[in-house]
Amino acid sequence: MAGDLAIDIRNVSKAYGRGAGRTQVLKGVSFQVARGEFVALVGQSGSGKSTLLNIIGALDLPDSGAVHILGHDYGTTSDRGLARVRNTEIGFVFQSFNLLEHLTCLGNVMLPAQFDGKMTAHQAEERALEALRRVGLADYAARRPSELSGGQKQRVAIARALFNQPALLLCDEPTGNLDSETGRDVIEFFRKINDEDGTTLLIVTHEERVSRVAKRITRILDGLIVEGDDSTIARDSEAKDSKAKDGNAKDSKEEEGAA
Ligand code: ADP
Ligand code: MG
Questions:
Q1: pLDDT exceeds cutoff 50 at 241
Q2: Which residue's CA is the closest to the ligand 1 atom numbered 22?
Q3: Would the N or C end of the chain have less CB density within 10 A of its end CB?
Q4: In total, how many domains does the chain have?
């Protein structure tokens, strides 16, 4: 039944550019995620992950194909309807955190508040504080993002994504700017959200290590979904993770230096 699916896309195609510069990024992708699932979509850089995630999140439109998200048929939903789905039913977490520097952490978490008569500013603050508490950062409510470490910034971004208690959380390389230990903490937190709230989670990543925590892994290769052999992926990730440790530790030092 379509109603049990959080994500149901069929034969979705998307190209960028024209003429000789035209790139077919998605080549007829079909992909389903049941409500409450925690899925990692793993693929190399350039395989079309962000393009697909943006289509699922109603941030971009496909050239062709059917997109049903949380029971909404995007093909027959107005722009206003799509904006409403995007703002109230879906949460987004990005690699680069996308926090606004001129706002405090509390202000950032409150950004998705819909002041449509149902919520006062005070209630929005209370709810934002609760979300910050959930990610362990209530004490940082009055701080600016620039005063936080990378892992803390991502936790603030997660609190913001959870503000409207979305049914679907879409994460684009959420650990891409984090060292491996911090990245693991963030992924563990996603698992907690999935377990406790039943939030459907889709994480796209090129990092195999994320696959350990997701409950299902699907692969994307050159704009096409290829169902993964989970056991193979798990074995690969063990090997790559131990190799990647040194490199990631260096990254985190560089990040601290830059902050
Ligand atoms: P991934 O997230 O897996 O790295 P993307 O979905 O970002 O892959 O991109 C897939 C391909 O589409 C890449 O070759 C990229 O250069 C191209 N692409 C993405 N967005 C655009 C755009 N707005 N205009 C032109 N090409 C794009
Ligand atoms: Mg990407």
A1: no
A2: 16
A3: N
A4: 2
